[in-house]
Specification:
Elements: H1 4-25, H2 32-45, E1 49-53, H3 56-66, E2 74-78, H4 84-91, E3 95-99, H5 110-116, E4 121-125, H6 136-146, E5 149-153, E6 161-163, E7 169-171, E8 178-182, E9 196-200, H7 203-212, E10 217-219, E11 222-223, H8 234-243, H9 247-265, E12 271-272, E13 295-299, H10 304-313, H11 343-351, E14 352-355, H12 363-377
Parallel strand pairs: 2-3, 2-4, 4-5, 5-8
Antiparallel strand pairs: 1-9, 6-7, 8-9, 10-11, 12-13, 13-14
Helix pairs in contact: 1-8, 2-8, 3-4, 3-7, 9-12
Amino acid sequence: MVDLKGQYKGIKNVVDSSIQDVLNTSTYINGPKVHEFQKNLERYLGVKHVIPCANGTDALQIAMMGLGLKSGDEVITADFTFAATVEVIALLNLTPVLVDVDPDNFNIDIEAVKKAITPKTKAIIPVHLFGQCANMEALMAIAKEHDLYVIEDNAQGIGADYTYSNGEKQKSGTIGHVASTSFFPSKNLGCYGDGGAIFTNDDDLAHILRGIVNHGMYKRYHHDVVGVNSRLDSIQAAVLDAKLPHLDTYNNARRDAARKYNKAFANHDKIETPKTVNGCEGICDSCNCHVFHQYTLKVKDVDRDGLVKHLNDNGIPCGVYYPIPLHKQKAYANSSYEESNFKVTNQLIKEVISLPMHTELDNEQIEYITNKILEFVNG
């Protein structure tokens, strides 16, 4: 699904040198490399504050801790996503409220969000799934109307642009009140271990978050807020800083691969290629609305699980993201949920399949993958 070794070869000298710098200085925690990466990422995103932390799940949890959400507060998020998003809501003794997603772009459904708001609702967490932004303009308008926080889960969308109705663009993760991201190795910007970060333009919130990530300390052994131990280590920061100048190139390579996949499957009545919030295919470099963390097809009247086996039997990795909706997971089941409210998610789990997507995909690999898919689908 990813080729981290191939990507490493292209930046080996810079990565090795950066890691060696950390080893030479022995500043493994909160060292100069962490601060350097933080500043460079702030410039890239155009955001005032980046707060590095240990992983993407911590980033979400710390963002909610910083907002001061209280036990029992309701947080609306998408049913069709990875469990980390709802996991941290539950860990903080908040109440997760799951809603359906858009059938075309897989992101949180705006009308479903509106219907889910109650007097207990305090926040919305849109997940920028598979590499493109949710409809942030609509969500921010809803949040303003109801005095809610918007926490962007940007683990899969870093580098993508969101385009407003007036044509203005803004980087994913910089639009809501606060955002989180993951630097897990397979992400578009990934380190060689675990890592994460929180983004915000709110100075006061940034100050709180910086304390939380470091045991609630602003001054050593003075614990001003309840905190956690969640710091990005210097070696991971060195890797990320070496990769950051290449992020746009990496995302363009992903779009190029998506373009080739789209062409191979064009106009096939049983295969639906990805769509975007903007209504385009997300493959034009000028748009940059989709960075294709995953390239996810929907297959119609096809044995999806049989297709997975067929691909695996032919040496092609693939993924089903996600096979079980969150509302049906044992940990998050709730008797108040009605299946009629999750029609899209319940259908997607039967149809979606994600293909290999990374910066090193070449024409021969894509041709082999697409031919094997068409071989199975066409019977």
